[in-house]
Design brief:
The longest helix has 43 residues, at 94-136. Among the domains are: 49-58 and 218-303, Efflux pump adaptor protein, beta barrel domain (Elongation Factor Tu (Ef-tu), domain 3); 94-182. Helix content is 32%, strand content 38%. Strand 17 (346-357) and strand 18 form a beta hairpin. By secondary structure, the protein is α+β, with helices and mostly antiparallel strands. The chain contains 6 helices and 20 strands.
Amino acid sequence: MPRLLKLSPWLILVAAVAAAVYLYSDRPAQVALNYGTTAVKRGTLIATVSATGTLNPLITVQVGSQVSGTIETLNADFNSRVKKGEVIAQIEPSLFKAQVAQAEANLASATASQAKAEVSIEDAKRELARVKRLRSQRMVSEKDLDTAQFAYKSALADAKVRQAAVAQAQAALQQARVNLAHSTIYAPINGVVLSRDVDVGQTVAASFQAPTIYTIAQDLTRMQIATEVDEAFIGRVKAGEAATFTVFAYPDRTFRGKVAQVRLNPKVESGVVKYDCIIHVDNKDLALKPGMTATVAIQVADRKGVLKVPNAALRYIPDLPASELAAVRAQLKPGQSVLWVPDGETLKPMFVRTGLVGERDTEVSGEDVQEGMSVAVPPGRAQAGSRRHGHGLRLF
């Protein structure tokens, strides 16, 4: 009995510690939160559709050769400015000159044959008249008359054949002259030479298609971007809408343009349907070069004087116990999102409705939303707090 009395204080102490551990383990632990804060702002919100595309001149002409031959001279090179009608290349013309001379000789021969046929007609006509006169006097037979008539008709037919031969020779001469003219290449438009695809002495063959000699851009001060927009967003894009874009060559500069056309022809790539949108841009300083890759943002909607928060604020989930997050989730109504508002040492949820979604901000509305109020964002997105941000359970 004295021994039991001696141990009883220790037993009481152990029991008290066990009870305290059991009591506090059943309570949710106070979670240390880490977050930044930002303010709800009022201002203009712009919604955009993003796409990428390639810069090209509005009008680009590929200048080729319609005849085959050896390049004799090239009068333009890369970046050369040319005027419409200016000689920019010459194919060696001696073969075409010879063809013209041969065609002229054939035409002269055909013309002479036609003249001879016309003389034969006159001769057959006179002979027919003489035989008819003699036949009326019964001095020749009926067969002689038939022979004279046949000779006259044959002379007429032969004259038509000679006339057709003259026309054929004239066409051949015209073709030979056209081929000779095509051996001289002229600039079809005023512009700048983007590329030269042949060298002096190179033989070009135009048997199946015209070989390209130059590529000429009409005006580099006006350019266009051909972008592909996903079918999920094409319904929001209209002709006339403003667009901004950047290029890798000038990462700190934003260029502006306007949607000129939304083409109806669909493109299917890996099961994804896309549509071409053509954006016209000014390039008066010639900073933009053909072929540059442009990252485009097409402005599809804008609102002024709306309350907005960073998109990160709507994605932020504090590292609270799962039971608390579940309770917040249960209170969410369709179409609502959650903002977390600092409340002393913790955060309290505020239910809001979202409107227009921009590239960085989203429109929010609700009874408790006020301009200037603080909301939580992940640390590093704004003025960071001093607490840890965990990977909380997603609410939506």
